[in-house]
Amino acid sequence: MTVAEAEACLEGLYAGAEPYRLSHGFRNQQKLTDVSFTYGEVQPASFHAVLSAVPKAPGGTFYDLGSGSGRAVILSSLLFDFERAVGVELVAPLVDFSNEVLAKLKTQATTRCVIDFYTGDLLQADFSEAQVVFAHSACYSMDLMKALVARAEALMKPGAVLVTINKNVHSRAFQRLNSVLCEMDWGSSLASIYLRR
Ligand SMILES: C[S@@+](CC[C@H](N)C(=O)[O-])C[C@H]1O[C@@H](n2cnc3c(N)ncnc32)[C@H](O)[C@@H]1O
Fold it and tell me: What is the second-level CATH architecture of the domain 3-196?
């Protein structure tokens, strides 16, 4: 699918969506004040540009750690040749909504990619099978980033790729391959692509 087609598809799937309201409501109710839960979303063209910069053609399993309303997961299935795409998100109403979008998608498009959304802490997720791990980490706290990188070191297989947004990965287990300037819904960002050695 082209980027323009994916954009049109997403517009239909997310028409009337209120992910910011869902995120705020849950965070207020659960008293989640950590800055890491700040909400923001990928844009189709930016996401395509970032994943296109991954040297080996993306395939296998894609993970989004902190998947919000599921846009990156859905886009990965529409724009790339992944066999499986998984989103992990702690804000339960966003996961419920992602599953509603997924149900809608299944009535509208055929994709051979198997898509799953889970409610949970990304630090508990088993993403060892992933070929590409995406973390829209612009607002992730230093503590969360440190723990995420430690878990990625432990789980990710050599040759797999970790993509972060506006955060560097400080680890000898990861080699920075390149960076891509891109627009997210809240502004300009730097996506960095790291190879698990
Ligand atoms: C900037 S949003 C990105 C949403 C989506 N990945 C996208 O790019 O469109 C970051 C998401 O990470 C989630 N998050 C933050 N910390 C988390 C954690 N420890 N476990 C699971 N999700 C987390 C937030 O609730 C938020 O929905």
Answer: 3-Layer(aba) Sandwich (3.40)
